[in-house]
Amino acid sequence: MIIIGINAYHGDAAAAIFVDGKLFAAIEEERFTRIKHWGGFPSQSIAFCLKEAGVSFKDVDYYAIGRDPRAKFIKKLFYLISHPSGNVSALKDRILNSRKVASIEKELSACSGISKKYFNNKILNVEHHRSHLASAFFASPFDEAACLSIDGSGDFTTTMLAVGKGNNIKIIDSIDFPHSLGFFYTAFTQFLGFPHYGDEYKIMGMAPYGNPIYIDDLKDVILLKSNGLFSLNLKYFRKAASGIAYFDNDYRPHVATLYSEHLISKFGEPRSKEEPLTQFHKDMAASVQRMSEIVIFHILNYLQKITGLSNLCIAGGVAQNSVANGKITSNTGFKNVYIPSAGHDAGISMGSALYVLHQHLNMTRKDPIFSAYTGSKFSNDEISNWLDLKGISYSYLNDDSLFDIVTDCLIQGGVVGWMQGRAEFGPRALGGRSILADPRRQDAKEILNTKIKRRESFRPFAPSILKEYVSEYFELDEPVPFMEKVFIIRTDKRSSLPSVTHIDGTGRLQTVDRDTAPRYYALIDTFRQKTGIPVLLNTSFNENEPIVNSPEDAFNCFMRTNMDMLVMENIVIRRPQ
Ligand SMILES: [Fe+2]
User: Fold this and answer.
1) Averaged over 224-234, what is the pLDDT?
2) Whole-prediction pTM
């Protein structure tokens, strides 16, 4: 049984392939197109999946599409009719987009050269939030768990509560568009001067610099309901029928301005992109983050109460809020939390395939997914062939000297581009495509921000820590394989990790497992043997672009920045002094 899951015509287009229930590959199209969050049809990802599994289009039993234009159709229609003030072309776009997805067989036909008709019975639509839920529950280690999908919106739904048991996900309740925690967060992200699709994490990074003094005001913007759900006070938002997300000619996603004049009259003039950040902006960020946590814990406490379960699975764009995720076990009755590596919309590809496998076909679940390394891989030969072709000089080192030389470079203050094994699926670099530095250095953050990342100084860098040492360094000891939770760093350890300790004493950690990431583990362990610290600073290998995928991407990024060393498998390139 071969299933390809697809997220198409939506931000973070992606594909994933399962063969007899086992995940063979999953990748985001942006890694190939080199356009962040690219949202067209993921033909290169599909081709990659087929190649990795060693199969062809005709071998695939089903193509699962993580969108169902028929979902809540009557509600959607009613909503559109009752909001006639919306702009007609945006409305037309939404309908056309649904049509595009409905004609996905055309795209598959164009990629494969097989007639369109052939795909008619092979395509299964899986509603957006069911795909999110499946990406978490069916990949989790739990036989039974409460499940939450929460994002901006998809298939006219913004939030979905469910219970997963064995091969089945049963929906408990859902919240309809436009009442969305994602929209709430995005509206204030825009208000605070960050207009790009996917900028929300900047608010999360800025929040600890402020105080949540506007919580009472925000309680009028997003309203908690006694049934465990919430609604938006729509006065604060633009009329949603006039369109939310749209794509330019390069399939680059954009979000329309979500806040209304009423929000401006209540909170003041929005910040423009270049304007300096004031304490007001920081306090607003802190308040928005805190309010979002209040809403999330309100839903989760309700979900825990009605299910009585201690296991939780979460997915959806809001599940990328690693600060909130790290507080779940302390603020709710849940004891164990699983969040997939691609909790955002790229994960729809994996989720729709898993939904078909287990919910439709009742196939027994395989091993849980704790590895995000499902993307591209390049051998030493492939890398050296490309470098030879370009006339670039390099050295080849065996593993022992490689780990030794790289850790020496880090200890001497160097910054290393590290490309090893398969690329990660999802927004986080986890030692497959990472830039590394010494977490003990006071100035590491400054060096990275000014010489390489050129990003806002308030944004923190993250620690990768050998999993055996988590309790020694952090106040909580839970598995965090995908850097999906932020924990408090123990007070006595903060001074030894200055460059990965955020202003509030937290760190967005990745727990590194020897079995899942043996070479990354070995590198950090070599660093530990030399310094006593089982931690490296890890940030994604990119510079204002999608995470690097190929040796060419990695080399180009190395040349554009001031990294000291580029390591691709066993091949090392040093920056000439
Ligand atoms: Fe979503």
Assistant:
1) 96
2) 0.95
